[in-house]
Amino acid sequence: MHYSDSAMLGAKSPSITQPETLVRAALGLGWACLNVDGVVSMPLYDGRIGGLVRSNDGDWIVGFVKVIGRSDVLQAELWALFEGMSLAWEYGFHRLLVRSDSKQAMELVNSPLSGSSVLSLVRAIHRLR
């Protein structure tokens, strides 16, 4: 099952809330929107990720697609978050509205314990924040 969740990263207390509310409330000057997704094709567990960064006006800035190799769905979603956030940072966007269809990935990266997660990708994403 997939969920449509969003989180504000770069704000003091990021949290998951309704995307429409965040878009109206958060995307002021200096904000960008990062949309990411990961997919794994069976039976080889071949993972691919992609995403795009849009300005606070909704204009496309940059996108990415990448083959990540053997993966499970959660890893693919986390890789998409990591790569997307890294790309946004490279383009100078440190305040992000992040959208992902993976409720599990968003809960992991928004957890107060994300910096000490057993998952290295969650810890890496935590360091980007």
From TrEMBL:
RNase H type-1 domain sequence ranges: 35-122
- UniProt-listed InterPro entries: RNase_H-like, RNase_H-like_dom_plant, RNaseH-like_sf, RNaseH_domain, RNaseH_sf
The protein's name in its UniProt record: RNase H type-1 domain-containing protein
CDD domains hit by this protein: RNase_H_like
Q: Which residues form the signal peptide?
A: none
Domain of life assignment: Eukaryota
